[in-house]
Amino acid sequence: MLDDRTIHFCRACGTAVRHEIPPEDNRPRAMCPACGTIHYVNPLNVVGTLPVWGDQVLLCRRNIEPRKGLWTLPAGFMELGETTAEGALRETEEEAGAHVALEGLLTVLNVARVGQVHFFYRARMLDTHLAPGPETQEARLFSEAEIPWEELAFRTVRETLQHYFRVRGQGDTGVHCIDIA
Amino acid sequence: MLDDRTIHFCRACGTAVRHEIPPEDNRPRAMCPACGTIHYVNPLNVVGTLPVWGDQVLLCRRNIEPRKGLWTLPAGFMELGETTAEGALRETEEEAGAHVALEGLLTVLNVARVGQVHFFYRARMLDTHLAPGPETQEARLFSEAEIPWEELAFRTVRETLQHYFRVRGQGDTGVHCIDIA
């Protein structure tokens, strides 16, 4: 969930900030009048996988808001100190308890409206053992015909699944870049 | 430049934070004991272009630290409210004053050590007019033989240029994903 990221106080010294355009900049930033720290608020990366087992793919039913109860791919916010691939593997483990091997970046989706970039990797499931974490009600495999298209949590998940089924079997291992309006 | 992003005070209420592992989390976060805000520090995206004019590419000599005086591709931190492509275009305009048309994502480079993901787009220069901004000492075109390999500012720039020259003319328009150790 997107928390309120507005900066009211300086992270370095605790003084109330002013929102002004710094010298040699062109947009307002939270500036500390006491210690001079300039605070930037930047887009966030969401990293995940599309786990595949034979002709089936793995979806997780969300146990947290937003979109609790709807189906998603295992994904979450990228952490400091990890790569996009490492983050995607971590989220797959945390949310589905699935063991997978990554097979390359599948989609990069810009969601500028909420200040996010989503990365989904193709992943080959190594077995069908699943152990959903606290953020997941249920994890299960779906064939293409079984995908609950009307109960998907996010457009980025829909676009990634659609792209996967479109190119599956074509030998297309390229990255699909999409802007979500 | 990477500023010190350590959080000492709550952005919402100004109270000194504690660094603790929140419930249902698995790593320490800056938590506010007064208002309960949890502060996350996440990776940053750097977006830029590799502008091409005939058999030449555009490089910019940096006028700011770090690596002042060394050559780079036009790039900078992605801003809230823009896509990676929009940010890459903006940085190309700001740093080189170059007019370009984007031709697809070329490289995605993970630099986990500094908590960054870099995106470079192929860009076709529309003319050779250049108007370097305050962060650039000089912008000019280089043939492959002229590239100042020993005076490049960043590994991500080197890798992107190497990849471009490797696949140039091969019809390979795929995205190259690289981890920078």
Automatic annotation (TrEMBL), chains A, B:
Residues 42-165 form the Nudix hydrolase domain. Pfam families: NUDIX, Zn_ribbon_Nudix. Keywords: Hydrolase, Magnesium. Its cofactor is Mg(2+). Belongs to the Nudix hydrolase family. This is NUDIX hydrolase. One of its GO terms (molecular function) is hydrolase activity.
